[in-house]
Amino acid sequence: MEFSVRAARVEDCKDIRRLILELAESLKDADNVTITQRDLERDGFSEHPFFHCVVAEVSEQHRTKGGLTKIGYTTYFYNYNTWCGRTIHMGDLYVMPEFRGKGIGRALMSKVAQLGLAAGCHQLNFTIFDWNKSAQDFYLRQGCIDITASTGKHFMCCKGEALEHLARP
Q1: E strands of the chain, at which residues?
Q2: pTM above 0.90, yes or no
Q3: Residues recognised as catalytic
C-alpha cells in the first residue's frame, strides 16, 4: 500500500485532533484530552511553535471506510540535554489500527530521526507506558533501548494547582 509522510500543515489540525482522540480512546484515557483544534493550530503553527508534527496519509483510493486519508501522526519537539547537547523528543506516535503492520509507524519515526539528525541532535527520546508491550517490542525492533532501569530516572510532572503553587514567589 502506498502512503506518504510529510510535515503537518495547519489545515491538518482537525485530523490530528481526531487521531489524538483515537489514540486516547485506545489507551482508555479520552476523558483527559482537553486539547482543541484551535490549540493545535496556535501551538504548532505559530511563529514560535511549541511542537511539530508529521502526518501519514494515503491516497483517496486507500482511504478509510469513513473517507479519511490522514491515518497516522507523530509529534516532536527539540530539547537540550546538558550532558550531550541537542536532542529531539518524540511525543505521540499513532497509526490507525487498520493501517498497522505496513511500515507507516516506522516511516513516521524515521522522519523524526531524520529531522533530529539534520538539526544536529544526538538522541531521540520518548516515553511509553510500561504495560504497552507491543509498543515496546516495536521500538526495540527499531534499535531503541529501554534506559529506565539503567538510568534510575522517573518521569515527573507538576500540573494544575501544584504548578500554580510552585510558580508563586
Answers
A1: 3-7, 52-58, 70-81, 85-95, 123-125
A2: yes
A3: 139
